[in-house]
Design a protein that fits this description.
Number of domains: 2
Strand content: 5-15%
CATH class of the largest domain: Mainly Alpha
Order of helices and strands: HHHEEH
Radius of gyration: 30 Å
Largest sheet: 2 strands, antiparallel
CATH superfamily of the largest domain: Winged helix-like DNA-binding domain superfamily/Winged helix DNA-binding domain
CATH architecture of the largest domain: Orthogonal Bundle
Strand order of the largest sheet: 1-2
Helix content: 55-70%
Number of strands: 2
Shape: rod-shaped
Distance between the termini: 86 Å
Structural class: mainly alpha
Number of helices: 4
């Protein structure tokens, strides 16, 4: 069963706490993603949701964005049941489309290999016929 938004929010909050403690500074997206072992895209989506709900605050300085906990109690207002997110739905669509493309590519490659086999067989047949006709002709 996939973790709910509530569960993911608690994981992100815990990661921010741990990284703030160990690094002595607010963590970045990549450090949170690395600690939790999830993709940066999913981590960014979760941080965006948490920032929208005023649970996390984003502070950008130059090209670096760091994340601070704002109001962790608001996590309790998030849904606890596991629902398939739009990101999961889009990912499933992408995977199915990719599998379809891969299967089409495999069938095209198999078809090309079969055509090449038949061409080589045809060329070999013509060479054998030419060699047989050369052998039948008497040399002068």
């Amino acid at each position: 069963m996939a973790p709910s938004l509530y569960d993911k929010a608690h994981l992100i909050a815990a990661a921010i706490r741990v990284l703030t403690h160990t690094q002595k500074t607010a963590p970045t997206l990549s450090s949170i993603s690395e600690l939790l072992g999830i993709s940066q895209e999913e981590t960014a989506w979760m941080l965006h949701v948490l920032a929208t709900n005023d649970i996390v605050t984003e502070v950008t300085a130059g090209a670096i964005t760091r994340y601070f906990l704002a109001d962790v109690l608001k996590i309790e207002t998030l849904p606890r049941q596991s629902t398939e997110s739009q990101l999961d739905q889009e990912l499933a669509k992408f995977k199915s489309a990719r599998l379809e493309i891969e299967s089409k590519a495999q069938s095209i490659l198999a078809e090309q290999a079969e055509k090449q086999k038949s061409r080589f067989a045809e060329i070999e047949k013509k060479l054998k016929e030419a060699a047989a006709s050369q052998a039948k002709k008497p040399h002068a």
